[in-house]
Amino acid sequence: MTRTHLETDFCIIGGGLAGVCAALAAARNGAKVVLVQDRSVLGGNASSEIKMHVVGADCHGSRPGARETGLIEELKLEDAYRNPHRAYSSWDLLLYEKVIENPNITLLLDSDCDGCKTVETEGGRRIVSAHITRSFTEEEFVIAAKYFADCSGDGRLGAEAGADFRMGREGREEFDESLAEAQADDFTLGNSILFTARKYNTPQPFVKPHWVRPFTKEEFKLRPIKSFEYGYWWAEWGGQLHTITEGENIRQELLRIALGIWNYIKNSGEHPDSANWALDWVGAIPGKRESRRFLGDHVLTQHDIESGRVFEDQVAYGGWWLDLHPPTGMDAIDEAPCVQHHLDHLYSIPLRTLYSRNIDNLLFAGRNMSATHVAFASTRVMATCAVMGQAIGTVAAEAVRQPEVAPLRNLRQPGTIARIQQTLLKDDAFLLDVANTDPNDLARRADCQASSERMPAANAISGVTRRTEAGWGSWTQGEENCWESSELPAWLELTLPAAGLVREIHLTFCSGLQRELTLSASDHVTSKVVRGAQPEIVRDYDIYLDGTLEFSMRGNYLRKRVHILESPRNARAVRVACLATHGHSTARVFEVRAYE
Question: Smallest Cα–Cα separation from 274: which of 325, 213, 359, 198?
Fold first, then answer.
């Protein structure tokens, strides 16, 4: 094999949504990144290899307005606009495009992390380099970096480095969690293999392979089959086994289960309306829910989540139900496939759950974060994993600006955490009870006027870029935080306290956060989604500085836009003229920022 040595600021193992968002966040904030993915495509469980839809804090749209923004919103808006036909390969390629077009990112696909070098430090241990093998090209890489992230799900890098982790379910008494098992065990949530099917004009027989698992009507009494085009998240199994070392046995049984379910649909006589349906894809890779969970300086618990705790070092948030499944899945025919314990509030995710307690320079994001099994049942969903990824990428970019490589817990100093939080907000992330206080944002001190106001112009500098609901936590009574015009066209003008140099204008538009937005093979889920440009987004607009046209945008479909002048202009008035949306009758703008 050919050996190549690479040096970088930040090395990320794992190219699911957590890893992709970590790479983009770090790179866009100036860090040099190497992203290592063991598959041929990016996206993990959201990719064409598994086809699980991305869900998060809005709970399939049942908590309107809580949808994650930032990088995951950018990706989903882009996909909805460019991929209305729901091709998963187009989604794969969008993620690939975003990564390879960033000059700060080096991408290694089909590459496995199979070792690392560490050194002992005063407070613990530090990773010096990761060893990567790409059999596809007969190459190996040694990647030296200042900081590392394990976004691999299974936690291979962290395990190789000796990072503390757990696997299985805690006992009830350890964290006083009412939803935990009475006694600790090694069980996890199971895996699933999904499939898709299509309807033809003529009957389509299904000849079952001899090795499929037989099913009876009794086994589906708590797992109703409501449609045929996409099946089935509840086809789960394997949590009673070791989901890493026994992964091949789990895959074989899940293939037996997937085709056994389809055989039941086609040949049992219970679903005669399936006559014209035929499989067109069966996943070859199980969608894995749980394996290793690393231990940080804090372990997120059921109490943290149910109380909607707001941590001072928060860098992300969640809101999905505490969604627990029986480990044996399809074997547990008398148990519901999931029990979803609804949450009264959103909750925050602190930085100290996203770095290792004993490896000084190791971050992690995704399902391997520091959480109990019960808390993980909420944090594991992919939109939550994505905002964690954006968080650790932002943290890494801040860390590499420090004069020396230091333990990540040092970043929890109040001033540093505030800077990280403000960077996240600037990049369109959302944090609980944290508003824009960026001292460099000239617009914060502006006087706001508009041609018309259904909601006040001053809302565009409220510092919060979404409507908040009173039920999200004690920190909000429910605020609009949006300028909305009464008609179109309309303009919004910010007058600064004094003329000054302006080079950047940041705009944040309404993108319909009250709706679910995801790519899904499910017709039911897709029926709630706008597969195209979101109607509320301002499509056409002009930006003026002191009456002079500086930018003219036509065909916008993104929520967040940043416009940068070739050189700063001395100006006092910033006007955004909204000419048309993608269908909504008014302009809705959540934020305008201005920077020198």
Answer: 198
Does the pLDDT of residue 122 top 90, yes or no? Answer: no
- How many angstroms separate the CA atoms of 289 and 281, rounded? 21
Name 263's bridge partners.
none
pTM over 0.85: yes
Among 423, 447, 462, give the residue marking a domain's end: 423
Q: What are phi and psi of 27, to 5 degrees?
A: -65, -40
**Nearest CA to 341 among 382, 289, 305, 293?**
305
Handedness of CA 413, 506, 390, 308 (dihedral sign): positive
Mean pLDDT of 403-421: 94
pLDDT of the residue at 84: 98
Structure tokens at 158: 């962290």
Q: How does residue 524 score in pLDDT terms, banded at 50, 70 and 90?
A: very high
Question: Do the domain assignments include residue 324?
Answer: yes
Q: Which of 13, 43, 28 is nearest to 143 (CA)?
A: 13
Residues 6+ apart with CB under 8 A from 372: 170, 175, 177, 180, 299, 300, 301, 302
Number of structural domains (the chain) is 3
